[in-house]
Write a structure and sequence with these properties.
- The protein is built from 13 helices and 18 strands.
- The protein has helices at residues 3-7, 17-28, 129-140, 198-208, 244-253, 259-279, 287-307, 315-330, 378-381, 388-404, 410-428, 436-457, 463-474; strands at 44-54, 62-71, 87-97, 108-110, 121-124, 143-145, 148-152, 166-168, 175-180, 184-189, 191-192, 219-223, 229-236, 242-243, 283-285, 335-337, 349-352, 364-367.
- A seven-stranded antiparallel β-sheet has the order 6-7-12-13-10-9-8, covered by helices on one side. Strands 1, 2, 3, 4, 5 and 11 form a six-stranded antiparallel β-sheet that branches. It has a three-stranded antiparallel β-sheet with strand order 14-17-18.
- The protein is globular and about 70 Å long.
Amino acid sequence: MSEAASTRTPVVLLPSLLPSLAPLLREWLPRQRWFAGKGRPVTGFSLVSATEMLPLGGAGAGLLHLLVRVEQPDFPDPDPATAPGPQDCYQLLLGVRGALPPHLAHALIGHPADGPLAGRAIYESLHDARLAELILERLRTPGALGPLRFDRLDDGGPAIPGGLAARPLDAEQSNSSLVYGDAYILKLFRRVHPGPNPDLELPLALARAGCARVPAPVAWYEATTPEPYTLGVLQPFLRGSQDGWLLALDALAAGQPFTDEARELGRVTAEVHTALAGALPTVMLRRPQTEHLAASMTERLDAAVQAVPGLRPYAPRLRAAFDAIAALGRRGRAWQAQRVHGDLHLGQTLLGASPPGSPPGHALWSVIDFEGEPARPLSERRKPQPVVRDVAGMLRSFDYAARTHRPWNPGWAERCRTAYCEGYAQVSGVDPRTEPELLRAYETDKAVYEVVYEARHRPDWLPVPMAAIDRLAATHT
C-alpha cells in the first residue's frame, strides 16, 4: 500500500459526502419500491452511519454502506400506526466507479456534481455481482467493520463456502434480497428501525429450539452504533420450493381440492406457535389488555371508514365484534399471548421436496418472512399476541385465493378453512374455532386492513375484502 493510500482520509468521514449525494438520492429514492414515503416531498437527509465496505479511493469499484434518515413532512393518514415517519431511516448500499460498464447502466443513480465523489458514477450495488459477493465474504467471518457487526449462530454452524455467484431477486417489495449460488438468500432490510428485527429474532429463537419448520439464520449483520439496527439476514435458499399461494391458485384452476395442504399448514402453524411459546416469554391478556386490544381495533376501523367510505354502512356491525371481546374481558375472560408470525398467509409458506427417507408423498412445508407487517412500528410487531392473529391471517388468505378464481368457489375456501383449523388442533390440542369471538375480531380487523390496502394500491381487488366485510358484518346482526 502506498503512503498516500494509507494516510488518506476515508470518504465516509468527510462532512461534504451526504450533501453531495443528496440531489441524487432525492430523485432516486421515491422511485424505489421499498421507499415508504411516496407521495410526499423529500426535504432533507441526515447521516446515521457510513462505512466503506470496499475503499472508494481506488481505481476499481468501491462499496459504500449508508444509514440515512430521510426527512419528509408529516401528512394525515387513516392509520397513524402504518404512516411513514417524518424521519424514516433507510439502509443504502451504493456502488462507486469512475465509469459504469454497459451491463450496469440500469443501476445508475447519478454522478455527484461536487464533494469527494464528484464526477464518479454512483449506482445500486446489488446489481454488481462483485460487490454483492463482497457482502457474502463479510458474512463468512464474524467481526466488526466500523459501526457494522457481522455474526453467526452460537455454534458457528457449517462454514459458508466462498465464490458463490450472486444475483438479486426482482420480486421484493419492502426489502431487497440476494441469492448466492442457489444455496443462500440474503434479505437486506431497507427501512430499518432501532432494535431487533423479528425476521432475525424469531427464526433465531426457533433454530435454537430445534424447530425445523423455519429456515435457520446462517449469518446476519447489524449496525451497533449510534443505535442497534438489524440490517440483513442470510438463510438457506430453499431451491425448488413452491409458493403456497401459487399452489393454491393452481389447485383452484385445476378444479382440485386443497384440503390436505391446508390441514398440513394448520399443523405446521401450530408447531411453530408451540416452539415460539417454549422459546420466548408468554403473557396473559386480562381486562386492561383486552380492552386496549378492542379499542385499537375500533380505532383502526374508524380510520378505515374515513379512508374508504364504502365501509360506513358496515361499521356498527363490525364494531360489535370488537365490543364482544372487550365485554368478555370485563367478565374475567383472559387469553394467552405470545410471539407470533404477525403477517401469516399462503405467500409466506413454501412447499419443499420430500426429505430423504420420508414416506412417499410426504413433503415439507416451511414458514418464512417473520418480519410482520413492515409498515407497522417495530415495537408493535414485537408484542406478544394471541395465536389466533396468525390463524385469522391464513383464513383470510384461503378466502383471497378462492375469490381470485372465476367463478368464485366459496365452498373451496370453507373446506380449506375447516381443514386448516383441524390440522392446527391436531398439534396444539386446541381448535381455534373454540374461541369464536376472538377469532372473529381478528379476522374482521384483518379484513378492514385489507380494504384500506386494496383501496390505496389495487382498487380492482377491493371487492375481495369487501365480500369478507359483508360476510363478517352479517355475523354481528
